[in-house]
Design goal:
four-stranded antiparallel sheet; 48 strands; WD40/YVTN_repeat-like_dom_sf; 4 helices; WD40_rpt; mainly beta; Methylamine Dehydrogenase, Chain H; 707 residues; WD repeat
């Protein structure tokens, strides 16, 4: 796709080029290709306005003024063939003076003359298909390109007059780079990848192409949505002023696993506000469009924040919900920008006319007070007593929100000091999570987690050879289950000889040995704080062990279960214990106490109580279970012997969905990405997908669509 001023170019019938004039609604059809057109680009000059089209067998430059005249005279328009048999072309771009054309075909970049069939340079060095290339306007003979190469940054700077590679940088993501833009005003380049990440590099000579900023579009969308929802909610509590609302400001792309950046283009922001005294930004700020598969975004280059968001799903008249490719006009005409998108799943093209001023004004009206403005206050006028979001389903759900007004009061000094708390009532709540961590504690926890948890190197291949092998027993004994602790330092193993072994992660030493079961141990699970270990056995018992002691802290005997206990684990950050027994799984609350009474030393002081039983629909036995203990999640996934999958919502206390005949055979393993509580992503975004394994293969499921 390609857009320029009031013209849109796109292929018709695969090998025919259509240039549509939106002002006159007149199409111009150009024929000359025998194979499907794979890349298009308009020239930078208006007179004459050139368009270049590329296919597998040839690259053609068309002079639109001459082609229009030929059609009016009744002749068939012809273009200039500047290249032949270059291969699969993914991207083409004109030089600033429209004298050269950069053609990205496979791993190669060909610099061709725009006037005749002459190859000026052939650039290689990429290890994967080149996805975008741009000419540098202020420095002659410089070309910048990005590629799908995952080993390098795939950002290469060329001197195409001598075909010499000037600079090559390393990649910081495992996902291919798809788009590229050169910011001439600030002398920067902006590149985007298939996972919604943006990087900005400086092209100033003494900066050595250093990275200036890294933007996560998913986070920016969530931040933008949270700000709108929060301020809209607070506005409802005001009596004299109400904040404007808009239902379509929720970023639909924030719930997707990938957000490919299809296009990066300059945004003609201030042209649309030249007659208004807007308070949005400074006049010295640059803006640019981001075209993704789900919508359009406007990014402020001064603070790298999201200024506006347009989602395709919010418009019922638009039949395209997920875009495969995107094109935008650089300059606005009558405060409107043309956007051309194609559907991911259908042969469909849509032309959008975006009113930039209206889009920004409606979304930013939520930030501006309406009516009489109140003066600023040192003390916050509105205090959020409880404010909690949940990312279940497709968006934010209010669980409990309350707001109270705080009036201005004079500054006073108190002559009394609050008590140290010795006279306060004892805390009676046993399982409420501690959410009031200080910043220093959180930072220390993050630092310790980062030091212990080393990320898997993205540039490495999957492991195919083992580093060490040890024998756990003197004679051959099956190992039924293994489980790493959360920090990866300890490894627990459940054996057929009725014991549980704990090793160091490097398998150099046995940390502890737990014995006491009367049957093979078929499941083990670590607590979030790595202090406790739960084990279940074929003897229909469950035991909780302290890592520092060989005696069990809690024992649930055979009288509590009618069938073998399986898949025992801690749940909801060590608040509960989950386990399976037959065709149901159980939720248990517990309290662990390892102290001993001198008179009743054999009586355990730990307490465990059944909260609820959850039977699985129409099955004889649960064959696998998965739940997250690393962060607060209500979702529990089960698989049954009837080849079905069932999703339970423990917040509602019922079954949420059932997938019948998920596999040809019974599922023997089901899991979800449990992530980390201090990950860069939102924890709620982890368990949107699940993976199941059965005798017929492995499947990845989307919990939003259950497909």
């Amino acid at each position: 796709l390609a857009c320029s001023h009031h013209l849109c170019a796109f292929p018709v019938n695969h090998n025919e080029l259509c240039v549509w004039n939106t002002a006159t609604a007149q199409p111009l059809y150009l024929s000359g290709h025998h194979y499907s057109i794979s890349a298009l680009s308009f020239g930078n000059k208006i007179h004459p306005l050139l368009v270049c089209s590329a296919s597998h067998e040839r690259v053609i430059v068309w002079n639109l003024d001459e082609c229009t005249q030929k059609v009016q005279e009744g002749f068939t328009p012809r273009g200039i063939v500047i290249g032949t048999l270059l291969g699969m072309v993914l991207h083409i771009r004109f030089s600033p003076d429209d004298q050269q054309v950069a053609v990205c075909a496979g791993n190669q970049i060909y610099v061709l003359s725009a006037k005749n069939e002459a190859m000026l340079a052939e650039l290689d060095g990429h290890l994967a298909p080149v996805t975008a290339a741009e000419f540098c306007a202020w420095e002659k003979s410089m070309l910048i390109s990005v590629s799908e190469d995952r080993t390098f940054k795939a950002r290469k700077v060329w001197d195409y007059s001598t075909s010499q590679l000037i600079y090559q940088s390393g990649i910081i993501t495992a996902f291919p780079l798809l788009s590229l833009l050169i910011d001439e005003e600030n002398k920067q380049i902006i590149t985007g990848c298939a996972e919604g990440q943006l990087w900005i590099f400086s092209l100033i000579s003494d900066h050595n192409y250093r990275c200036i900023a890294h933007i996560d579009l998913k986070k920016e969308q969530e931040k933008f949505c949270n700000k709108l929802v929060l301020l809209t909610f607070l506005g409802e509590g005001q009596n004299n002023s109400k904040l404007c609302k808009k239902d379509n400001t929720r970023p639909e792309g924030s719930v997707e696993t990938s957000l490919p950046i299809l296009l990066i283009e300059h945004c003609d922001f201030f042209v649309c506000f030249h007659n208004e005294e807007n308070t949005y930004s400074s006049l010295n700020t640059s803006y640019f469009w981001i075209g993704t598969s789900t919508g359009l975004l406007i990014i402020n280059l001064a603070n790298f924040e999201l200024e506006a968001f347009l989602s395709y799903r919010d418009y019922s008249d638009l039949s395209i919900r997920i875009a495969r490719s995107c094109a935008l006009t650089r300059k606005a005409a009558n405060q409107k920008v043309l956007c051309l998108i194609t559907s991911m799943f259908e042969d469909m093209i849509a032309v959008l006319e975006v009113n930039l001023a209206a889009l920004v004004r409606t979304q930013h009206s939520d930030f501006l007070p309406c009516g009489n403005e109140k003066s600023l206050s040192v003390i916050a006028r509105y205090r959020i007593i409880k404010y909690f979001f949940s990312m279940l389903d497709y968006g934010f759900v209010y669980l409990a929100v309350k707001c109270s007004t705080v009036k201005d009061k004079p500054l006073v000094f108190h002559n009394k000091i609050k008590s140290s708390g010795y006279a306060a009532a004892p805390r009676m709540t046993m399982f409420s999570p501690n959410t009031n961590l200080k910043k220093k504690e959180v930072s220390k926890w993050k630092t310790s987690c980062k030091c212990k948890n080393k990320e898997y190197p993205l540039e490495s291949y999957p492991p195919i050879k083992y580093e060490k092998e040890i024998s756990v027993t003197c004679k051959p004994t099956p190992i039924f289950c293994i489980q790493y602790s959360g920090d990866g330092e300890l490894l627990a193993c459940g054996l057929a000889d009725k014991t549980v072994l704990i090793f160091n992660s490097n398998l150099t030493d046995v940390h502890n040995v737990f014995s006491g079961h009367d049957g093979a141990v078929d499941s083990v699970g670590w607590s979030h704080d790595k202090k406790w270990l739960v084990s279940a056995s074929e003897d229909r018992t469950l035991r909780v062990w302290s890592v520092c002691s060989k005696e069990p802290a809690l024992i649930l005997g055979k009288e509590n279960f009618h069938k073998t206990v399986r898949f025992a684990q801690f749940y909801f950050i060590d608040t509960f214990i989950l386990l399976c027994c037959g065709a149901e799984f159980r939720l248990l609350s517990f309290h662990l106490d390892t102290t001993k009474d001198d008179l009743k030393r054999y009586r355990q002081r730990s307490v465990c109580k059944l909260v609820q039983k959850f039977p699985m629909t129409s099955t004889m036995e649960i064959t696998s279970l998965s739940a997250v203990n690393e962060f607060y999640s209500y979702i529990v996934l089960t698989a049954g012997s009837n080849r079905a999958l069932e999703v339970f919502d423990l917040n509602a206390g019922c079954s949420a969905a059932v997938i019948q005949e998920a596999h040809v055979r019974s599922v023997h393993q089901i899991c979800q990405n449990k992530g980390s509580s201090f990950s860069t992503q939102q924890p709620e975004a982890y368990n949107l997908f699940m993976t199941t394994a059965a005798g017929d293969g492995i499947k990845l499921w989307d919990l939003r669509t259950l497909r």
